[in-house]
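Ticket #278: bound-state structure for C2E.
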Amino acid sequence: SAKADRAGVAVYEEVRDGHGRHRLEDVAQLRRALVRGELVLHYQPKLALPTGVIDGVEALVRWQHPTRGLLYPDAFIELAESAGLMAELTRQVLDMSLAQRRAWADQGRDLTMAVNVSPSNLVDEDFPDEVAAVLARHGQPADRLVLEVTESLLMEDRERAVRVLGRLREAGVGVAIDDYGTGYSSLAYLAALPVTELKLDRTFVAALTGSPRAESIVTSTLQLAHALGLVLVAEGAEDQDTVDALAGLGCDLVQGYHLSRPLPPDQLWSWLDARTAV
Ligand code: C2E
Ligand code: CA
Ligand code: CA
Ligand code: CA
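RESOLUTION: The complex was predicted; output attached.
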């Protein structure tokens, strides 16, 4: 269950709160984790609805902590951002995910790789060059990489973020607006952004079956996305009814526990094999 999966995180929080563990110590541990290579990636598949093909995966970072077990991003992403470690974290995530994409491509599976990026990445004018360098190092095509950014992130330093995103788009990298619908973006604002995908937040997706209101939100978001030439991804589909409803409404891609939880690379590979086996 989710509770058991996240036990490591719960314990971690308890230690921090209960014993007043110093933030400095957490920062030092995270810094060490980056040096020692303790971050690992799990991958969650994205299903293309009209074709039933697995089009790509989203890379989700975990921290294989030496004593606390597997920690989920909720336990350390904010810390990385506030401690100035996000540039390095993102660099490592890009490096690992593109090495993995290459390995899979070499074995005959050409998957789109989606990577989450943070506010500090998008206000860094060097970021597009770094992304290009990692792509080149692994010999990977830019158009098979999608960077997922949240709406709130785009509000912080809009001009700079638009500039950085524009350069990534020029290089051919895809850009998705993550958790779409939870912020306050206007249509005009969205239309002006150099993006390729909207990822509808799972709160709307979860409410979809049996709620005409949620269905209207999905329908209008789809119309908006398609009018702007964007791909609509629904995240957080937890049952077949939801997947069917999304397919019926014309959603392009779906992600969620019903299909698969995020998995370590070898398990994802087996999962893909099992799906395509006759
Ligand atoms: P996100 O980008 O919105 O990622 C989706 C989260 O929802 C993931 O949690 C995923 O495991 C979870 N999820 C997927 N399908 C379902 C479902 O059907 N139901 C439910 N309830 N949840 C589902 P996770 O892996 O714990 O990641 C949490 C957040 O941490 C991510 O949200 C993202 O904002 C951030 N994150 C993850 N990896 C990275 C990374 O490499 N870099 C940065 N900067 N942030 C990351
Ligand atoms: Ca995401
Ligand atoms: Ca999301
Ligand atoms: Ca989220």
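RESOLUTION NOTES: Confidence is low (pLDDT under 50) at residues 1-20.
TICKET STATUS: resolved
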